[in-house]
Design a protein that fits this description.
Number of helices: 0
Radius of gyration: 22 Å
Oligomer: single chain
Length: 255
């Protein structure tokens, strides 16, 4: 399976004190995926809202976030003898994350490199309702699926790195991350039944995310003025059976 997604997000952060900030964000996006050998594919549109907060205690920090999203799915599948099947349904996801770390200032030659070991725990719950496929070609292979709830709990252990550079009198902060992630996935399966044979129940197993992954990040943060900041970031997630690549661009205004 190959999948791609895209989206945009906007939010606002309020500094309640110099050490503590909290805020909210809303986002919208879409996903496209396809199965090998032309067996089908689909897409989804989503809307997400979340709140978050961070507090610093000297070089230590603690942060947390919770979010909710609604997804609108369309699937297309090719069954035996070219039978075309499609379905439309909604799904909901809920997520929470907590993270803690401690920053060390490490002198390297004439520069100071910030090294922040951190640990994080996040949980996601995903719900899809019971739904049925529409048989576009009348081949009789349409399925009805039962409602499903699945969870993914992830732990992360790693370190973040930062370094301040001055480029033509403009501050440029370089950031990186290297971490190990472990996922516990509860139930990547659906109960299905042929619409034409109500007693023919069976289970469809989905692609299970890898249990262990290497997480990498490279980012540059350009402070164009005292108010405007431009950020470019690349994230990679690498495992023996899956690879994920993501790029993010951010324009931030502070007052």
């Amino acid at each position: 399976m190959t999948a791609s997604d895209y989206g945009c997000a906007a939010g606002m952060t309020y500094h309640a004190t110099p050490e503590t900030a909290y805020g909210f964000a809303i986002a919208g996006g879409g996903t496209n995926w396809g199965l090998a050998q032309g067996l089908g594919g689909g897409r989804s549109d989503s809307f997400q809202a979340g709140v978050y907060g961070t507090t610093h205690m000297g070089p230590a920090y603690l942060s947390g976030a919770v979010a909710f999203a609604n997804h609108w799915f369309t699937t297309n599948r090719i069954a035996a003898l070219g039978d075309q099947l499609t379905a439309k349904f909604d799904g909901q996801s809920y997520a929470a994350r907590g993270e803690a770390g401690y920053r060390y200032a490490v002198p390297v030659n004439t520069a100071i490199i910030g090294v922040t070991p951190y640990a994080a725990l996040q949980a996601q719950s995903f719900h899809t309702p019971g739904y049925s496929e529409t048989d576009l070609s009348g081949g009789g292979f349409g399925l009805s699926y039962g409602a499903m709830n699945a969870t993914d709990t992830r732990s992360e252990l790693g370190a973040r790195f930062d370094n301040l550079q001055i480029i033509d009198h403009t501050p440029l902060v370089l950031r990186a991350r290297l971490a190990w992630a472990h996922d516990w996935v509860s139930n990547p399966a659906l109960g299905a039944v042929f619409q034409g044979l109500p007693g023919a129940n069976f289970t469809v197993n989905g692609a299970v995310p890898p249990a262990d992954s290497l997480l990498t990040t490279a980012a540059a943060e350009l402070h164009m003025s005292s108010n405007w900041t431009l950020i470019a970031k690349f994230d990679g997630e690498f495992a023996s059976t899956a690879q994920t690549y993501a790029g993010t661009g951010t324009l931030r205004y502070t007052w």
